[in-house]
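Final report, closing paragraph on structural work. Over the funding period we assembled a curated collection of sequence-structure pairs, and we close with a single example.
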Amino acid sequence: MKRNVLWITIISIFVISCFVLRLNNSITVEERLNQKNLIVVQPDYTYPDKIAFDLENESFFTTDLAQAVKNGKFYEGYRHVSNNGKERFDRRKKYTLYYPLIATKITKKEIQKSNFKVRQKVDREIQEMLEELRPYLAPTKMIVVYNKDYLPVEVKLYDTVNQKWTMFAKYSYPYKNRKEYEKNLDECIEAILNGDFGED
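Its predicted structure, as stored:
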């Protein structure tokens, strides 16, 4: 009797483990990004400008460009403050973080199979978005490089005009928690309000 109970327990643990593993492998990049939440993007690798995002709280900041959004307010340049933070965040999320480009349905299993370097077609909707920013690229293909946490770290687009791959954006995840991020966000806002970035 005890032996039967033991075997049932072992089998149950095995079945549950297999289910959890399968479920874990089916997690998409979009889900991983939302879980990670705090993302830093270097939208043009030829320049050092970086922008940090908090997806859940809809905030961002960049000391390089003297801009920040927090609690629906937009801070910029020399003590400028406005109430269009939500609009600014949404635009930055789309056109600077390139969220629609990187938040794909690619799964962890697919990333593993491709050795953390996924080559895929660019959807027509994404092409139109990118053409607004860099019409000279006319991209139809992209390569996304992922780290061991299944998060994107590099995006390369195929330049159909010059027929070559070009670096488009780089991503990093330096913040261990929101407290660290909020500290830097508040410091950026304080610098803007103090006029540390100078007059326009």
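Residues 14-23 have pLDDT under 50 and may be disordered. The chain has one domain: 25-193. We thank the funder for supporting this effort.
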